Amino acid sequence: MKQELHSAANFIVHLLRLAKRGVSEAKLLKFQKSLIHEMRNRYRDHWFPEKPLKGSGYRTIRVNSKLDPMIGRAGKACNLSETFLLEAFPIFMLWINPLEVSYRFGENNPIYIFYDKHCLDPWTHQNPPRTSYIAPSSPPPKENNVNLDDIINDLKT
């Protein structure tokens, strides 16, 4: 569970960093630690390594017109308002499952897997593993004033 939670938190912090909203690295680190704490508390009784997809919906983080409550609580712990966070993030979903963490930007775009059982370390923007995905039928839309093409390209490099 540790690798998956760290990968997911690193991903979310990276999205916040890419939003270029002037959040200090110290505050990002506090946000990351708080987010890992929130996820660990929520998922500890809903983690089934023998059946990784069991409870997958429960372990989904979603940001659309609303901010996922775990992200909101983690932000509150380091004085980042829900409004600030909602404006900083693109619309996305993140699935945190045993042995795999994946995401999707928007509501109907392809799902990208950025952490899987073959990774030795958690995902970071500095050491991204290979990313697998289903080829999109159309380019991702630009949402919340964030250029999703830039984010996807940044995550792949």
Question: What can you see in these coordinates?
Answer:
Mean pLDDT is 82; it is low at 133-145. By secondary structure, the chain is of the alpha+beta class. Helices cover 39% and strands 15% of the residues. The chain has five helices and five strands, in the order ααβααββββα. It has one domain: Actin, Chain A, domain 4 (Alpha-Beta Complex). A five-stranded antiparallel sheet has the order 1-2-3-4-5, covered by helices on one side. Helix 1 runs antiparallel to helix 2 and helix 2 (25-43) packs across helix 3 (69-77).
| Second CATH tier, the architecture | Alpha-Beta Complex
Low-confidence stretches: 133-145
Query: Which of globular, elongated, flat, extended, rod-shaped describes the shape?
Result: globular
Helix proportion range: 25-40%
Cα(first) to Cα(last) distance is 25 Å
The helix tally amounts to: 5
Do you know the CATH topology?
Answer: Actin, Chain A, domain 4
The main sheet orders its strands as 1-2-3-4-5
Q: Bin the strand percentage.
A: 5-15%
**What is the residue-mean pLDDT, rounded to a whole number?**
82
| Name of the CATH homologous superfamily | Anti-proliferative protein, N-terminal domain
Largest sheet, strands/sense/barrel: 5 strands, antiparallel
What's the total number of strands? 5
CATH class: Alpha Beta
Radius of gyration (Å): 15 Å
Elements, N to C (H/E): HHEHHEEEEH
Task: Assign the structural class, choosing from mainly alpha, mainly beta, alpha/beta, alpha+beta, or little secondary structure.
Answer: alpha+beta
How many independent structural domains?
1
